[in-house]
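User: Show me a protein chain along with its predicted structure.
Assistant: Here is one chain, sequence first, then structure tokens.
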Amino acid sequence: MKLVLPNQGLDLRILSYDDLERMDKEEASDRPKWDNKAQYILTCVGFCIGIGNVWRFPYLCQSHGGGAFLIPYLILLVLEGMPLLLLEFAIGQRLRKGSVGVWRSISPYLTGIGIASMLVSLLVALYYNTLIAWIMWYFFNSFQSPLPWTQCPLNENGTGFVPECQESSTVDYFFYRVTLNSTASIADSGGIHWPIVVCLFAAWSVIGLCYMRGIGTSGKAVYVTAILPYVVLAIFLVRGLTLKGALNGVKFLFTPDVDELLQASTWLDAGAQVFYAFSIAWGGLISFSSYNPVQNIMTMINAFDLHEDNITTSNYEAAYNRLNSSYPDIVLGLDIKTCDLHTFLSEGVEGTGLAFIVFAEAITKMPGSPFWSVLFFFMLLCLGISTLFGNIEGVVVPLRDLNVFPKKWPQEAVTGTTCFLAFIISLVFAQRSGFYWVTLFDNFAGSIPLLTIGFFELIAVVHVYGIDRLNEDLKFMIGYKPSIFWQISWRFISPLIILVILVFYMVIQAQEELTHLVWDPSSEKFPSLASIPYPAWVSAVIFVLAGVPSLVVPMYTLCRLVFVYCRKNISNSD
């Protein structure tokens, strides 16, 4: 079945093969280029593998039965993630544009796909850099012995310890009260928490400096930010395996709970995590690929071995590192309180608590804990920065393509302005209720919108750009056409899986009551986090986070259809 919609002027909007070859030979393109292939590969790996490996992925594994979650995750990774990843690599490298430029070149009616990707990248970057700000706070506090979260502070009179700390734990108290000074509800902002403001400013300053000249500076920074974390992870893995209960943790990871495979939520979370893990539909990968030489055989083969229909060594390594990055969290979190991280999670710690509470407490059990703490949080800092490069690329390039900034502005001015405006917006996370805002953004900004954008990308390439044209493009770039597996995946399997996940995801979300976990010392269950309903106005925020990016594509297409129709009628009347 070959259904390709009419698409007038496509050949005029994209460069021919001869033009592409000529531009490569003459270096006539106005787009920057990677210094070498290693920069491109490291940048993409750093973009895909970030802080989520330390808290989001391990938390999902633990929530869905350890090894049970790996089964749907790996299945959907192959059937859903890999095809879309290759598609974004190929379309970016072929059309030589960022996310907005690519989809506008394919059809002006599809510009909304690039805008939607830009919005998601911005929303994720806002809360993601807040995590980097928290990491900076812990990193700077790690240069003291003993670590500040190993003991309760004295009360105002100096006659004893703070009761709230004694009733909970030192690590909980340091995170929720000292670091964030959290309120008891998202409805109570509590005002600005100035230590986080300072850390946020530092975080955005670091990102701005590293990305000042686009890939010209970020491409060099990834030599540190993308490589160092793997060295540190290997060190922590070896150290973690020596801790008490480590074997139980590894056993739990690889022992699937078959009952979890029957739960729809397990598959839904796995499908959404694939998009989050591979940074698909964020626009950054398309933009990064556009800086490659058009006939970049090694890069494309490093991404996929199309001839043998298998994932090559570099992707095996990336998949291994994604799974390997969850081991330290599970292993090092075992020798705490119950000696069972799964039980610890059931008490209310989730998401970011894995890094800032579970791991922080595990570090205190090690001899020379300040050294391990500095090493761990510096690793997180590198992971976060390398991921933010992709997010900022997915925002800055589309903004320039949409002419939001004056064309005369240099890259430094565009980057600086973007980071400063993002810092101003991210002050919402510097409130004492900032922890709940981060959770809200994480739950909704990077789930439904990514699935929706991915679905539209597949439809756009297969039925508007034309799958046969894409096959010829790949033959031109790498020497041969993709195999039947990719053809079937692009045409049927991947869009069907995404559509099913979207439908079930929205059905389940509609049935669940919107609640959030809060730090409330007056709660009967304290020190466990209390689950309370969201205020009614949060529904509007959720619509902005999840609904607006998802609806941008059809709304933009509809508005352009109306605009073209009206302009045609006016021309005919004249």
